[in-house]
Design brief:
- The chain has 154 residues and is of the alpha+beta class.
- Helices cover 50% and strands 13% of the residues.
- The protein contains 5 helices and 5 strands; from the N terminus they run ββααβααββα.
- It has helices at 42-50, 53-61, 69-75, 81-93, 115-153, and strands spanning 5-7, 15-17, 67-68, 97-102, 108-113.
- Strands 3-5-4 form a 3-stranded antiparallel beta sheet. A two-stranded antiparallel sheet has the order 1-2.
- A hairpin with a 5-residue loop joins β4 (97-102) and β5 (108-113).
Length: 154
């Protein structure tokens, strides 16, 4: 198959040609594909981490407050203890949250956003606001797509 084309079960009549990315320019946004082609790219790794659904929820919950592990687990529907542990460790490693162990019995551990994590929360809040403002349009688009797909299957 040629580069820039894809086979899709939704398009049984053939291939769909996609446009190549625009070349990088010094004005405006950089080429959004340039980071994706480099092997071992840290930008891709960071985006994978912060765009993960569990990371987004943890960052959102820690906005301007400290929470304990059990509070986070209770607030995040569907997350396992292991996945929460892994997510918190990764976010701490990336400098987005801070883990504080209090020397009491039993030990108490609090999590909070670092200043860096707070800047990411601002971005997440913008994304959530956009989603809330456009959810009806997205629902209508999904319904239209599903109706067309159902017709194509018949």
């Amino acid at each position: 198959m040629e580069e820039g084309t894809s086979k899709s079960p939704r398009h049984p009549e053939g291939t769909v040609t996609t446009l190549p990315p625009e070349p990088h320019t010094t004005e405006g946004d950089p080429d959004p594909f340039q980071w994706d082609t480099r092997e071992g790219c840290e930008v891709r790794q960071i985006l994978d981490r912060v765009a993960d659904k569990w990371s987004l929820l943890v960052i959102a919950l820690l906005d301007r407050r400290k929470l304990r592990f059990t509070q986070l687990k209770r607030e995040i529907d569907g997350i396992s203890q292991r996945m929460l542990t892994v997510t918190l460790r990764q976010l701490e490693r990336d400098g987005l949250i801070e883990r504080t162990v209090h020397p009491v019995v039993p030990p108490r551990v609090d999590y909070e956003l670092t200043p860096l994590g707070g800047t990411l929360h601002t971005t997440i809040r913008t994304l959530v606001t956009w989603t809330e403002e456009h959810q009806d349009e997205i629902a209508a688009a999904r319904a239209g797509y599903d109706a067309r797909a159902a017709l194509e299957e018949r």
